[in-house]
Design a protein that fits this description.
Blueprint (H helix, E strand, L loop, with lengths): L1 E5 L4 H13 L3 E6 L5 H12 L3 E6 L5 H14 L2
Parallel strand pairs: 1-2, 2-3
């Protein structure tokens, strides 16, 4: 199972991602506007410690082209 969470490394998104990771063995695809950095990697490690897989993809969901590219990447990468 793959789950896409926008804003997944920020406040509410992180809380949701951690809760899901504690309950479901899934691949969590987290997105955010910022490039992947140490803060995002810390969230990914925390999620993986809860038993889920986690990936971060940079995308601004207020920009149509970012969303189109994000969905395409997710579909291609997680068939």
């Amino acid at each position: 199972m793959n789950i896409l969470i926008t804003g997944g490394t920020g406040g509410l998104g992180r809380i949701i991602a951690e809760a899901v990771a504690s309950r479901v063995k899934a691949v969590l695809v987290l997105t955010g506007r910022s490039p992947e950095g140490e803060a995002q990697r810390d969230v990914l490690r925390n999620i993986e410690a809860r038993g889920a897989q986690a990936v971060y993809l940079q995308a601004d969901v207020s920009i149509r082209n970012d969303v189109v590219e994000l969905i395409s990447t997710v579909k291609d990468r997680f068939k």
